[in-house]
């Protein structure tokens, strides 16, 4: 009986170690994509990852499901905070490596989501070049689809953003615009 309990624990430990390995790989992928996020978001993600690593080292060999559940709830709380703070809720993301050489990587990204009540879709290519320990990234072939393109100012903004390939300006401006768009929508509903 004791051997079967021990085997069950060992199986659980192996499953958790595999999950940790997969999460670490996912983190590495996300870290490569960090050029899309603000410094604050990157720092918050790094804090969560290092907190998770520290937690794993402290509890190595005697992790309990309740500890893992508490950690998951903490990460979900952080994600909810970021969603509420920025208004962005990403619904899908896909990444495909188009070309990879020694110090050059080209990836095609598709991203969709909502900012407050405005839906958007992005498609772009990201060229990353690494020189020594410095990585530079260039966005090209940016295509933006938004539901509120009937507004001529938004159309002009989207067109100029697509030409420049400036994702940071797009996300910052979309956040502000979507917030005011939501206020206008609620105001007009109030008067109907």
Automatic annotation (TrEMBL):
Coiled-coil regions, chain positions:
6-33
GO biological process annotation, one example: CENP-A containing chromatin assembly
The protein's superkingdom reads Eukaryota
**Entry keyword Coiled coil:** yes
Task: Give any Gene Ontology cellular component.
Answer: chromosome, centromeric region
| Keyword terms of this UniProt record | Coiled coil
* Name of this protein: CENPP protein
Q: Lineage of this protein's species?
A: Eukaryota, Metazoa, Chordata, Craniata, Vertebrata
Encoding gene, per UniProt annotation: Cenpp
